[in-house]
Specification:
Layout (H helix, E strand, L loop, with lengths): L15 H22 L3 H9 L7 H9 L3 H12 L3 H25 L4 H4 L21 H16 L5 H20 L5 H24 L9 H19 L6 H26 L1
Helix pairs in contact: 1-9, 3-8, 3-11, 4-5, 4-7, 4-10, 4-11, 5-7, 5-9, 7-8, 7-9, 8-9, 10-11
Length: about 270
């Protein structure tokens, strides 16, 4: 990929206020998640939340699919494929997040709710994982990363937009509790780790700028290959319902439209 030396003005990652806010929020989430894991509230809150169905199951399946790491990456690539600074930060966040998630899940290997609680206690939606590797929630990590990235990328004078995006990302993280896939501690910790990954990616970008030329043919082809791999990973798991299928088809259609509209530009 062609690297551009100029630093774009679209990034606000070097703002002290933004950095301090992100650090504080991420560390608070991680601390609360760890404390919750060692508390009886971790199980009590999950059981209480499953005592009644707040929204239809297909709604939660639709929402939880947007927390898939591959689908989140595809969404961000669609939004920022033409902005070299933002694109670099997105890619660095995911490069950090993949090994961190794998190592923590394999090392901790905490049991999931369905390994501990009887199925009658939980209102299970879809086919949540039954094996271990519960801490942290990968979906919540992806949602936390998206929330932090969008908070950084959006203008500070549009605070209501930042709030809406963060709330949507929190809803995605909450969906992991609603479908019965994770404990509250997994979700809170994962969300905080997602924000922390963005902070580390910002530091990486500050130390070693990695600007990509969005108009380069090689960059376009590289992004196309990355999108193809991410789409493949998104569609590997079985479809658990109409809601999940709709979410997958929505992102797939977005990728197709983006490729068809950007290819003539890359050839030019």
């Amino acid at each position: 990929m062609t690297v551009v030396r100029e630093r774009p003005d679209s990034l606000a990652v070097y703002s002290p206020l933004v950095t301090q806010t992100a650090w504080l929020t991420a560390l608070m989430c991680i601390a609360c998640g760890v404390g919750l894991h060692h508390s009886s509230l971790n199980q009590e809150w999950l059981i209480q939340g499953h005592q009644q169905s707040w929204l239809p199951g297909q709604f939660w399946l639709f929402v939880t699919q947007w927390g898939d790491a591959g689908q989140c990456l595809l969404l961000l690539l669609l939004l920022f494929a033409h902005d070299s600074g933002k694109l670099a930060l997105v890619l660095k966040t995911w490069l950090l997040g993949i090994p961190v998630s794998l190592v923590l899940k394999q090392t901790l290997n905490f049991p999931r709710p369905l390994n501990v609680l009887e199925t009658q206690v939980l209102h299970v939606i879809g086919q949540p994982p039954l094996s271990g590797h519960s801490m942290p929630s990968g979906h919540a990590m992806a949602a936390g990363s998206v929330a932090a990235l969008m908070f950084i990328f959006m203008r500070s004078d549009r605070a209501w937009r930042q709030g809406v995006v963060v709330l949507l990302c929190l809803l995605v993280a909450l969906s992991r509790l609603s479908v019965g896939a994770h404990w509250p501690a997994d979700v809170v910790t994962g969300f905080g780790l997602g924000g922390l990954l963005v902070i580390l990616a910002c530091h990486w970008e500050r130390v070693q700028a990695w600007r990509l030329d969005p108009d380069s043919l090689r960059t376009r082809l590289g992004l196309l290959a990355l999108q193809a791999i991410a789409l493949f990973l998104v569609w590997i798991p079985p479809v658990e319902g109409v809601g999940m299928a709709l979410a997958r088809w929505a992102i797939s259609a977005g990728v197709l439209v983006a490729v068809l509209t950007s290819w003539p530009r890359s050839r030019a």
